[in-house]
Amino acid sequence: MEYGSTLRKLQEIQFALVELQLYLDMNPDDQRAVKQYKELTVQLVQQKQAYEKERGPVMQYGHSSTPDRWTWHKTPWPWEIEY
Predict the structure, then answer these.
(1) Neighbours of 7 (CB within 10 A)
(2) Can you tell me the distance from the alpha carbon of 61 to that of 47, in angstroms, rounded to the nearest whole number?
């Protein structure tokens, strides 16, 4: 999978989770939305793990696994990614 499309999928899932969280703040009893939020959370974890295995850490400050070697400098800057 291409770098930009892998990152794009992560961003899409994160965006959906933010929107669902905002919705659930106002509609906490919507069980369909709660189920969808849980499913997307699982997808996010899986997508993040797959991305990090292939490309390196997504987030800093302990939110991503630390590889045996430092790889932040090898990933493109956000403005260098073509979607």
Answers:
(1) 20
(2) 19
Mean pLDDT computed over every residue of the chain:
80
Q: For position 81, what pLDDT does the model report?
A: 73
Q: 5 Cβ partners below 8 Å, 6+ apart?
A: 83
If one counts every other C-beta atom within 10 angstroms of the C-beta of residue 23, the result is 14
Domain definitions of the chain by residue range: 8-56
pLDDT (tens digit, 9 = 90+) per residue, 57-81? 776 555 555 555 556 566 777 778 7
Task: Assign 3-class secondary structure to the chain.
Answer: CCHHHHHHHHHHHHHHHHHHHHHHHHCCCCHHHHHHHHHHHHHHHHHHHHHHHHHCCCCCCCCCCCCCCCCHHHCCCHHHCCC
pLDDT for the residue 1? 47
